[in-house]
Amino acid sequence: MTLKQLVVNGCICAITAIVPAECAATRECVAGRPTAASYTWNFRQEADGIFQDIQSDAVQARSHADYLDRFVAEPDLSWEAHADQLAQLQSEINDIGNRLCRLETIRRVVAPWQQRSIDHIARSVQLMADNAQDAILFLNNNQETLWSPAYRRYVQNLCDEAGDLTASVGNAVEYAKVNTEYHELRRDIGVKARS
């Protein structure tokens, strides 16, 4: 499946460890849902707001990945605990995919730095989706061997990717904030905008 099929359309397989891991959704990301900022035609501001939403989801995803990482070190922990964290992580990935769909829709009209951030988010979420699906498949077929190196690798990859996504989206949110403050300060002290 392609990035658009798994992530951009917001339809990453919503799988729990109890259900067979299959991706039923194959619809394309068409237009994405407009947000309140869409109606002002300020797509750069809208993208900044979506980055903030994704940052919140990414922090949650990292938390679930960190729990999974701790769970791997406890061989007596039930597979259901792993399944619960994977399901919650998958939900966060789906939420990010929905938001990413809107970003992809407005990508051509946002600032170049925002376009690069969108591309980075898309790559990170694709990797997270792939590893989450692999971890779910492994869990479904190997509930008694969650200590194995393969499962540990999936979980470690999820931790790394969630950390990367959290950091990069955090940088985008911070840059947007500083950029806004800069333009407001220029306006407040009367520095004319460059044409």
Shape: elongated
Count the E strands.
0
Question: Could you say which structural class the secondary elements and strand pairing correspond to?
Answer: mainly alpha
- The helix tally amounts to 5
> In the residues, how many domains can be counted?
1
Radius of gyration: 19 Å
Mind telling me the CATH class? Mainly Alpha
Portion in beta strands: under 5%
Order of helices and strands: HHHHH
The rounded distance between the terminal residues' Cα atoms is 44 Å
Mean pLDDT: 82
> Helicity, in percent?
55-70%
* CATH architecture annotation: Up-down Bundle
Largest sheet: none
CATH topology: A middle domain of Talin 1
Extract low-pLDDT stretches.
1-27
Provide keyphrases for this structure.
195 residues, mainly alpha, A middle domain of Talin 1, 5 helices, disordered N terminus
List the helices and strands and how they pair.
Layout (H helix, E strand, L loop, with lengths): L2 H6 L34 H30 L6 H28 L5 H30 L7 H41 L6
Helix pairs in contact: 2-3, 2-5, 3-4, 4-5
Question: Mind explaining what this structure looks like?
Answer:
- The protein has 195 residues and is an all-alpha fold.
- It has a single domain (43-189), classed as A middle domain of Talin 1.
- The protein is 69% helix and 0% strand.
- It has helices spanning 3-8, 43-72, 79-106, 112-141, 149-189.
- The protein is elongated.
- The chain starts with a helix and ends in a 6-residue tail after the last helix.
- The model is unreliable at 1-27 (pLDDT under 50).
